[in-house]
Amino acid sequence: MVSLASRTAILMSLSFSVAPPLIAEPYAAECPADNLRQHGPGPDLADLWDWVRGELSFEDDLPPPQVCRVDSDVIQAMRPGTALDTVALYDRARHRILLSRYWNPADAVDQSVIVHELVHHAQALSGRRLACASAGEAEAYDLQAKWLDAHDLDLDTAFGIDALTRLVLVNCAY
Q1: Bigger pLDDT: 39 or 9?
Q2: Can you say how many angstroms the Cα of residue 131 is from the centroid of all Cα atoms in its chain?
Q3: For the chain, what is the domain count?
Q4: Long-range contacts for 29-32 (Cβ within 8 Å, ≥24 apart)?
Q5: Cβ distance 18 to 120 under 8 Å?
Q6: What is the sign, positive or negative, of the torsion defined by CA atoms of 87, 13, 120, 152?
Q7: Which of 54, 103, 105, 122 could cross-link to 42 by cystine, CB 3.0-4.6 Å?
Q8: CA of 81: how far to CAs of 9, 38, 42, 54, 164, in Å?
Q9: Is 50 exceeded by the pLDDT of residue 119?
Q10: With contact defined as beta carbons under 8 Å apart, do 10 and 86 qualify?
Q11: DSSP 33-59
């Protein structure tokens, strides 16, 4: 079980996932396909992508991102200075999610992290220009919160993200 402080750090590091990261080798190349279901019970990537597209009224039949399971140190190398327990990052340049091997597919909180990253994928595919890296976070947190609510959880309980923290995370001034 990841501590509340670790989950907070995870979400805070996710708030920078919109900008294209620098990719450390060997993950600059294509990674093996991963639909999430092969890692245990829980929804697969297509199910989560369909849910996100439906919630965003995203009618185009665009593909979900590729998911690459990587060691946490790879994610940390892509985001120096962020939390040690970062679970996932969206690679906007390559339209894929880099996902820690420690991610638990049966956990609704961990599933919400994928939902958050899928929102960034939808934003990238839509071609919308964002004012700053944090500009897309409000929508991502909204859908993540909705997913958590459907599982009787919330951002504050799951990640320690209260209203004030969320405001800071989505503000372009930070």
Answers
A1: 39
A2: 19
A3: 1
A4: 30/66, 31/66, 31/67, 31/68, 31/69, 31/70, 31/96, 32/68
A5: yes
A6: positive
A7: 105
A8: 11, 32, 32, 35, 22
A9: yes
A10: yes
A11: ---SGGGSSS--HHHHHHHHHHHTT--
The pair of structure tokens assigned to 43 is 């929804």
At position 75, the amino acid (one-letter code) is I
The answer to whether residues 16 and 133 touch, using CB atoms and an 8 Å cutoff, is: yes
Structural domain range at position 129 = 4-170
Please choose, from the candidates 12, 20, 24, the residue with its C-alpha nearest in 3D space to the C-alpha of residue 113: 12
Place of tokens 């900008």: 19
Query: Which token pair is 172?
Result: 């372009």
Quick one: pLDDT band at residue 150, thresholds 50, 70, 90? very high
Query: Tell me: the pLDDT tens digits for 19-74?
Result: 333 333 445 455 655 555 555 567 888 899 999 999 998 877 888 998 888 887 77
Cα–Cα distance list, 167 to 16, 32, 123, 145 (Å): 14, 36, 20, 14
Q: Residue type at 142?
A: D
**Per the structure block, which two tokens stand in for 153?**
């959880």
